Structures are given as C-alpha cells and as structure tokens.
Amino acid sequence: MSKDFINKNEWALILGGSSGLGLASAKKLALHGMNIIIVHRNRKSEMKQIDTDFNEIREIGIEFLSFNIDLLKEDKQKEVITNIKNTIGNGLIKTIIHSVAKGNLKPMVDATHVLKNDDFRLTIDAMAISLYDWVSAVFKAQLFTKDTRVISFTSEGNTKAWTNYAAVSAAKVALEAISRSIALEFAPYGVKANCLQPGAVDTQSLRMIPGYEQLIANSLQRNPFNRITTPEDVANAVYLLCKDEAAWINGCIIPVNGGEHLN
User: Which segments within 115-224 are labelled E, that is strand?
Assistant: First the structure.
C-alpha cells in the first residue's frame, strides 16, 4: 500500500469522525500515512465502540488526536485549535473533512411536531455554516499546508424533495454554496474545496431518516452495480482528492455512487 503522506507531518482534521463517512475516511487516510484529528460529539454510552475504532486507527502507527466537544461552539473551537497548534509542533493540516450530521428530520404538515424556523437554523448551522467556521478558524491560525483540501459530503437531497428531509436538504444546498465560495476565495492560499455526493449509504445518519428502507431499496434499483454505496467507497474518493495529483480539482460536486445518478 502506498504511504503517500508518511513522514510529512501532515494532518487530517475530521469534523464528525466518530462513525460513518468521517470514520471511514480517517481509517483510509491513516493507512496511507496521514496523521488524524477527529472532532466529534458523542454520549458516554457510545464511547465503548468509538474507543475501539479510534484504537484501530492508532494501531496503524500514525499520530492521532480526538476531541469530544460541541464543535459548533466558538469557545470550544478556539480551545481545540489552540490544543492542536500546541500538540502538532511544525505539523500542518492537509485536509479538513466535514462529516457533521446534526439536524432535524421533521415533516412540514400533518404531525404533532412539524418543522419550525429554529429547526432550519440549527440544521443549516451544524451541517453547512460550520464548514466555513472551521476553515476560517484554521486559516487564521496559519495551520494549513500550501496545498490544502477541504472535503464535505452532500446528498441527492440537494435537488430532490424527500418527506421529513426539508431542513437537511436546505443545509446541503447551503453546504455546496459555501464550499464553492471557499474554492474561489481561498484559492490564492492553496486551498481546494469540493463536495462528494454519495448514493445512499447505510450509516447511523441514514437510519435516522424516517422511511430510510425505501431510500435504500430505491438506490439498489437505480444503481448499475445493484448495490448501495459503502463508507469505504466514499473514503476511497476522499483519499484520491487528498493526493497531489488531485490538486487541480476545485469547486466541484462529485458523485460517488457507482453511477446511481444516471437512472
């Protein structure tokens, strides 16, 4: 296996990396020699499995840091960035991977608890605006490499309407807009930003969507390879975008779904 990032003292900062796409990306990049920082928010009851997964990454032999904090709070963000700066020495952050899944899945009508204004605000803040907050904070701390990659995850909800998905759909559209602007305005400083659009991935986040089984069934029917996307499929694409050869890919929405979008 190629150790593209070994001995470069380069780090991946993964926002929401305790499960799903973020965790898979952490494992993949670690296998190729990149040091890993995971910022996540989990309850004590969830930590046994998370500690097991994190130890697997440590055993690969790279440097590893994790912070179980509310990454949406500015004071916690500053605390983490100061800690990172003091810990990694001359190291720099090669990539920020945004895999935050915190939002409200509610219907708009005919329910006891319908979607409200605050639900949109919380979801868009967590799943979109936080990308800019962290990119800006890391940039101000002068922690980026000269060739940095910013990667986030969108979905087909960027153009399609699904019941209960309105707030997340709005967040995905905002995420893409923010990513494009990062790609434009941070380009003079060596930052490239792209969104990956997986097909349906059977993760904890997907299972929170009411009727997720139908989304999986629909993906299986549409996919030319007759299977759904796995976290590892997406992690492989993350790895490719972090390689030197991907330096000219910027400001894109890239499907990672085996051609599911064709049908």
Answer: 144-153, 191-198
Compute the half-sphere exposure of residue 207: CA atoms within 13 Å on the CB side of its CA.
Answer: 5
Instruction: Tell me the per-residue pLDDT of 178-226, one tens digit each, with 9 for 90 and over.
Output: 999 999 999 999 999 999 999 888 877 777 777 778 888 888 888 999 8
Distance CA 77, CA 107 (A): 32
What span, in angstroms and rounded, lies between the C-alpha atoms of 258 and 199? 8
How many CB atoms are closer than 10 A to CB 175? 26
Is residue 50 within 8 Å of residue 17, measured between CB atoms?
Answer: no
pTM of the predicted model, to two decimals? 0.94
Q: Is the dihedral of CA 143, 30, 240, 200 positive or negative?
A: negative
Distance (Å, whole) CA 173 – CA 260: 20
Has residue 60 got a pLDDT over 80? yes
What residues contact residue 11 under an 8 Å CB cut-off, 6+ apart? 34, 35, 36, 37, 63, 84, 88, 91, 92, 93, 94
